[in-house]
Please model this.
Amino acid sequence: MSNLFDGDSPSSNLYEYTVSEISGSIKRTVENAFEHVRLRGEISGYRGPHSSGHAYFALKDDRARIDAVIWKGVFGRLKFRPEEGMEVIATGKVTTFPGSSKYQIVIENLEPAGAGALMALLEERKRKLGAEGLFDEARKQLLPFMPRVIGVVTSPTGAVIRDILHRISDRFPVHVIVWPVRVQGEGSGDEVANAIRGFNALEPEGDIRRPDVLIVARGGGSLEDLWGFNDEAVVRAAADSAIPLISAVGHETDWTLIDYAADMRAPTPTGAAEMAVPVKAELEAQVASLDARLKGSMTRNLDRSRQNLRSLARALPSLDQILAMPRRRFDEAAAGLGRGLQLNTLNKRRTFDNTAYKLRPDVLQNRISQHRQRVGEQMLRADRQVERLIDRSRSRIANAETSLRALPHQLKREISRTLERLSTLSARSDIAVNAMLSRQRSALVAQNRMLDSLSYKNVLKRGYAVIRNEDDAVISAAHLVTGGDRLTIEFADGRVNATADDGDEPASPIPKKKAAKSQQPTKPQQGSLF
Model:
């Protein structure tokens, strides 16, 4: 045992490190050996940037795995955002994390592992957005024939905007609003999406009028240069745009996801300007042609109308021909008017003479005597009718007096018959009421038996009891009772008041003598539940 503490032990020649010293030494060794490396692997465990802005994930292949971190400042400058399962080439330096004895790579640059990986990612995103219906033809809108305002989303310093403005001014000069954005690099997709939503948020008649059509344009480039227009936010903004949108990204052979979501795809930015507006000279020529055709048509129509009017005028009769027959009928009527007046006067005079001949005094006296005779005869007939009415009334009164004398006997017979019917009905009703009462009494007895069988008081007669609190509520469990609670115990023959003790103390046994006395009918006293 003494050799373990001997200063001459061989192990005493080794240098003693602290944990921090050995961790720092390992960190310096790893960083010096792997100062800058390019590492290829598949992203695993990526959940987006942390709340601090840093991104933590891992790179793996089929046999190994290494932790990776992208600091906040570097993450904002990346051309490509990492995605779960994406194969990438990471550039950075390998270091250790002494806090947990792990090594990791601090990524300074990140790029997809070749165009194949980008195309695979692009196809996967295309399938995902297409499944949501963002590329359906039913969502496409028709472009306005003659827009008054055109909105352009592009870089303000490139040749694209100059080509678009030059083509629009040549074809049909209209008001153009440019929303400047970055068309390449990190954050370009978000700027394009915000520009599309910003144009849609403008008021139709505001200070800055909302465009009638949008053009999203960029010149040609590689797949990496055009990657911002494959961003999911750009595709969704284009699909949700209420303003018709023309996609003019890259050359004719270049395709991006915004081309599928846009209402129209142009092969070049210049082609987008040609789609947006018509050719003013062609419109003017067309209007002039239509004007000439309209004037010719109007001239020919007026000539045909004049010719038809002349033909109709030749077919109409002259004024003398139209008035000849009415004039003849008027002359004939005027010639016969005097003769007709003479004949009418003679007829009226003859009628008057005949009527005057009939109005002689003797004729009037004969008519008056005839009327007097008729009036006398009518008065005699009226007197006879009045006498007959009086006789009939007297006979009715006599018959009524006879009927009134016989009425008491009839009433007595009717009353007797009614009394007999009433007594019969009374006897039948007594029998029916007694039968009904007996049936209800039997039913009541049966229900009373059922009630007694279901009543909890029968259980109390077998020695059980019901315990209630101060509110007269039934207590069904012991944990509902605390020390000092006032209780009521219900037995089959009455209730007893009690006070609960603490449940931890054992209940003292009841002496047999006191238990025997409690069986005797005594005045109830307050006892203990336990």
